[in-house]
């Protein structure tokens, strides 16, 4: 009865809620277990897909195992192949056409090119190279040349064999990339290896003590990398190569010594052949040949205007020059240095082959800025950016004036040479060229003069002119002057610029008149100037404005000398508002005591040193006495014990 009664006893509200919560949790766990068992297979498939897509989105349709990861995990390999009527055995991974994509072809080709590298390692290098064939090929070649410890993985003992079951699907871009790798990339890698080995040999040579100090960059260089001039000055390959390239750029064939000791020797061709490439050496020999031919001054010598080829033409009536160089073979005119234009004359060709207006103005501006050496047979072009107006040609070393363009002998050509003139020498009589002036302002004026002259010539010929394009070619205003506290050169006065400016203004006025004439017969007269303001006329003033008008007249100022309006009073400064303070008396410090005489100071130092020595001697005697007393006491104690 007790058990039955206890079983049938009703539960409290708290117990009922706990029991309901416990039952709900059980039901929830059961439902979760059932759902987990039901979707176990689906979850595995999703995990495999995520793992495959995590590698790269483009790798899902490739001809590789979908379960293989970057780390070579080959567990649970599942191959999905399908048979097609056209494509044969293809990978069923998202490529509906059934054909291998470029990425598939590249990876398959890499597997075939490197049969000893495992596929997961090749795939890892392929992804690291952003799925490009050539960078992956380079990385694979480097990996094969490394050791197992450097590489981090081992090569396969047995090479992989391609069975060739798939159909050949050549890709144009892949084939082009493979061809480039086969021809250029391997050569480049071999060259890099040779450079690396050469650098290692040079370092070993320097470490063994076989080195010298370069006379230009002052660095330690191996003896096998030395280039000497005719006097024995040694330089490294890099400095000698840079010197040769700079001299070749200036069309010079004599390579001077770079020594800072004032050596005037040069580098022979045998020495320069050590450090120069074959192409640079060939260019040097061509320049040398041209200079030697020019120095010979052969009669009837003609040069091709399109290449360095030259030949002697004995007949002065021959108008054409037939170039015999294989890569040129151009027939040109001996007079105008242009291509063959017979039967037309040079003037007719120039008239027919007119440049457009903007190009013609640009050519004129460039010709005004670029100067040439005045020596006959040289004509080396140059541009001056700063410095004096005495120019030295970099080719023939001829002295010339930048202003007038004549050959000069020295500073006596310039009127303001100053201290640059040698002692006892005076400037030439009537010289108008300045040695120093503002180069920027002179260049601006000369270029502007050439531009205005070219525009005037174009307007005379009635050529089509695009005003917007011509406006872009105009130079700016005058160059900004230096501050007042900084010394600067005086601005030049170019006569051609002033004349061109006046002619340009007249041409602009004439163009306006022509425009009026074209507009109609009513505009044939000269353009009317702006009329000056009409003078005020006297008229009666209304009664209501008479007083106000009078006030206005009294307040207004008329022109100078008007008797009706008084002149303004001159300005008188006002008096000061307060009395100025008395001048401040500067504070004067009391005089310092006189410094002791040197003799008294030396005597005082000697006395202090003597006192210090006496005190030290006294302390030493006291210490010695204490030591002796201690010894006597110890000796007495020892005798008493005995």
Automatic annotation (TrEMBL):
The protein's name: RING-type domain-containing protein
Signal peptide range in chain numbering: none
Compositionally skewed regions (Low complexity) per UniProt: 608-617
Gene Ontology molecular-function annotations: transferase activity; zinc ion binding
Keywords: Metal-binding, Repeat, Transferase, Ubl conjugation pathway, Zinc, Zinc-finger
Pathway: Protein modification; protein ubiquitination
Domain of life, per lineage: Eukaryota
Basic residues: bias regions: 46-55
Biased composition (Pro residues): 560-596
RING-type domain: residues covered: 210-424
The keyword tRNA processing belongs to this UniProt entry's keyword annotation: no
Residue numbers spanned by region Disordered: 36-100, 530-642
Organism: Rhodotorula toruloides (Yeast)
Comp. bias (Basic and acidic residues): 597-607, 625-635
Pfam families on file: Rcat_RNF216
């Amino acid at each position: 009865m007790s058990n039955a009664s206890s079983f049938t006893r009703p539960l409290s509200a708290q117990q009922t809620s706990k029991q309901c919560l416990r039952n709900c949790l059980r039901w929830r766990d059961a439902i979760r277990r059932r759902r987990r068992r039901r979707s176990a297979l689906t979850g595995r498939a999703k995990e495999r897909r995520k793992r495959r897509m995590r590698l790269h989105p483009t790798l899902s349709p490739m001809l590789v195992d979908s379960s293989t990861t970057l780390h070579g995990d080959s567990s649970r390999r599942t191959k999905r192949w399908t048979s097609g009527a056209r494509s044969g055995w293809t990978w069923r991974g998202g490529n509906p056409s059934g054909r291998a994509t470029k990425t598939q072809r590249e990876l398959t080709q890499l597997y075939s090119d490197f049969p000893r590298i495992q596929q997961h390692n090749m795939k890892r290098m392929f992804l690291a190279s952003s799925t490009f064939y050539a960078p992956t090929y380079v990385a694979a070649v480097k990996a094969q040349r490394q050791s197992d410890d450097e590489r981090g993985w081992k090569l396969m003992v047995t090479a992989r064999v391609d069975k060739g079951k798939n159909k050949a699907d050549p890709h144009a871009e892949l084939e082009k990339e493979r061809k480039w790798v086969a021809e250029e990339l391997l050569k480049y890698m071999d060259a890099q290896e040779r450079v690396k080995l050469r650098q290692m040999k040079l370092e070993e040579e320097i470490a063994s003590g076989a080195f010298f100090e370069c006379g230009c960059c002052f660095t330690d260089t191996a003896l096998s990398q030395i280039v000497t001039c005719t006097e024995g000055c040694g330089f490294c390959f890099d400095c000698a190569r840079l010197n040769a390239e700079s001299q070749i750029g200036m069309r010079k064939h004599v390579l001077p010594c770079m020594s800072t000791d004032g050596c005037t020797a040069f580098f022979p061709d045998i020495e320069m052949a050590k450090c120069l490439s074959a192409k640079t050496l060939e260019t040097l020999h061509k320049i040398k040949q041209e200079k030697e031919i020019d120095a010979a001054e052969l009669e009837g010598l003609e040069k091709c205007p399109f290449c360095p080829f030259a030949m002697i033409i004995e007949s002065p009536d021959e108008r054409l020059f037939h170039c015999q160089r294989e890569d040129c073979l151009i027939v040109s005119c001996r007079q105008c240095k242009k291509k063959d234009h017979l039967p037309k004359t040079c003037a007719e060709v120039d008239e027919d082959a007119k440049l457009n207006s903007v190009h013609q103005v640009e050519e004129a501006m460039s010709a005004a800025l670029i100067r040439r050496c005045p020596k006959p047979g040289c004509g080396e072009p140059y541009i001056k950016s700063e410095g004096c107006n005495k120019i030295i040609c970099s080719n023939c070393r001829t002295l010339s004036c930048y202003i007038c363009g004549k050959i000069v002998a020295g500073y006596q050509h310039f009127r303001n040479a100053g201290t640059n003139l040698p002692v006892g020498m005076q400037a030439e009589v009537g010289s108008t060229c300045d040695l120093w002036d503002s180069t920027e302002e002179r260049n601006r004026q000369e270029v502007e003069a050439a531009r205005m002259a070219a525009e005037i010539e174009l307007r005379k010929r009635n050529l089509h002119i695009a005003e917007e394009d011509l406006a872009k070619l105009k130079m700016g205003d005058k160059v900004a002057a230096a501050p007042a506290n900084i010394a600067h050169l005086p601005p030049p006065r170019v006569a051609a610029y002033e004349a061109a400016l006046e002619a340009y203004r007249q041409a602009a006025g004439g163009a306006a008149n022509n425009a009026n004439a074209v507009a109609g017969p009513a505009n044939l007269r000269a353009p009317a100037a702006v009329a000056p303001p009409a003078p005020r006329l006297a008229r009666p003033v209304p009664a209501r404005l008479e007083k106000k008008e009078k006030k206005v007249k009294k307040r207004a100022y008329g022109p100078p000398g008007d008797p009706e309006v008084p002149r303004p009073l001159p300005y008188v400064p006002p008096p000061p508002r307060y009395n100025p303070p008395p001048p401040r008396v500067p504070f004067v410090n009391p005089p310092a005591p006189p410094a002791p005489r040197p003799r008294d100071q030396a005597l005082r130092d000697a006395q202090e040193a003597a006192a210090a020595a006496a005190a030290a001697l006294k302390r030493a005697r006291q210490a010695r006495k204490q030591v002796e007393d201690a010894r006597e006491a110890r000796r007495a104690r020892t005798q008493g014990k005995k």
